[in-house]
Structure formats: structure tokens, C-alpha cells
Amino acid sequence: MAGTGPAPKDGRVRRNADPVDSITLTDAAPTVEAPRLRGYAKYSAATREWWDTWRAAPQASAFVTTDWMRLAMLAPLVEQYHAEPKTALLAEIRLNEERLGATVADRQRLRMKLSGPKEDKPKLAPVKDIADRRRSLED
């Protein structure tokens, strides 16, 4: 199974300080003014929701211009994925989102810590068929 290296040995003791500081994020709205996505209105509701979720995410408070540029470059791929889901598109999106701390594991690897209450879990209905999901996104 692929991973980020071998599992640590039992009883491991770190004798040196971690050379990389962790980033503590507040679970409140970001303190930075997040940019609007160019051509925002032309994108589907699903892609606009994706962009707005990233704008409001705690990680956004740590983003710089190049991070926002990366997300803006991903928007057409996200749009294309919602129109016609393909594994290759999802892999590219996931790879880029990983670098920005999309999941708990990503944030742990990046040494990002959330202060305050845990993230709310999205309230999504279970999807049995991709066609049902597409219809729900069109509404």
C-alpha cells in the first residue's frame, strides 16, 4: 500500500525539534479577503459552491495569492468533473486540493491545527446513482 514512508517504530523518541512550525487556524471565517472567482456567474451551482466553500474554509486565512491562483486554475476542472465525472479529473483535483489542506489527513501532514469546535460534517443525502446526483446539482 502506498504511503508517506515506513510506519514509525514502537517507543520512538524524537531527540531534535521539529524544523517546521505548525499553523493554527481558527474555525471562524477567514480574516483575509478572499477573491471572487473570475467568471463566477458562468459556472454551475456545484462549482460556485465548491469555490465558496474554499473561500470560507479555515485554511483560507493562511492562503496567499498563489494559493488562490491554484484554486482558480482548478475551477474549470471542477466544472468539467461535475458535467462528466472522470477518474483522471478527480485525481488531479484531489492532488491539488491535498496541497491546500482539504482533508483532516492533509491538514495533519501540513501541520495545520484547527482551534475551536470541530468542522461541521456536511449534511448530504446518500447517492445511489450518479444520474440522481447530477439531477440534484442541476436544481
- Apparent shape: globular
Q: Kindly report the average pLDDT value.
A: 83
Query: How many strand segments?
Result: 2
Structural category: mainly alpha
Spatial sequence of strands, sheet with the most strands: 1-2
Q: List unreliable stretches of 5+ residues.
A: none
Strand content: 5-15%
List the total number of helices. Answer: 5
Separation of the first and last Cα atoms: 40 Å
What does the largest sheet look like?
2 strands, parallel
Rounded radius of gyration (Å): 18 Å
Order of helices and strands: EHHHHEH
Q: Approximately how much helix is present in the residues?
A: 40-55%
Kindly list the characteristics that best describe this protein.
139 residues, mainly alpha, two-stranded parallel sheet
Overview of this protein structure:
This protein is mostly helical. It has a domain at 45-116 and 129-138. Helices cover 42% and strands 6% of the residues. The protein has a two-stranded parallel ribbon. The radius of gyration is 18 Å and the shape is globular.
